[in-house]
Design brief:
InterPro entries: Cyt_c-like_dom (IPR009056), Cyt_c-like_dom_sf (IPR036909), Cyt_c_1A/1B (IPR002327). By secondary structure, the chain is mainly alpha-helical. The chain has a single domain, classed as Cytochrome c-like domain (Cytochrome Bc1 Complex, Chain D, domain 2, Orthogonal Bundle), CATH 1.10.760. The chain contains five helices and two strands. Strands 1-2 form a two-stranded antiparallel ribbon. Helix 3 packs across helix 5. It starts with a helix and ends with a helix. About 14% of the residues have low confidence.
Length: 135
Amino acid sequence: MTKTTKTLLPAAAALALLAAPALAQDESSFRQCQSCHQVTAPDGTNIVGRGRTGPNLYGIIGRQAGTVEGFDYGDGLVAAGEAGLVWTEENLAAYITNPTDYIQEFLGDDSTRSRMSFRARSGQAEVAAFLASVQ
């Protein structure tokens, strides 16, 4: 083992330990979502949540809005996806703050509605960070 490796391995381990509480906090923020959503990997491994009302959120960051195969999205979210809405941590956090307002603003159409009626009152950035971490 080289001197550099001996120095880097403990540093990497320390960084991982420092990041663990943040990830745990982000996952705990997802609790407010799990009654309707789940995060299940393509191989069937359930990471968190059991809800089936909303779509599986695994891999949502970087995905076009309204495109999980087999999920029946509302017209507003499908239209937003077709108009170019791709989920980022930032816009997902904004969306879960007020889904209908977000879609209306994105599309420029005050008559559009989101089927997601839940509004996150806190932890939006943490939820988005958690979902980004389980890609």
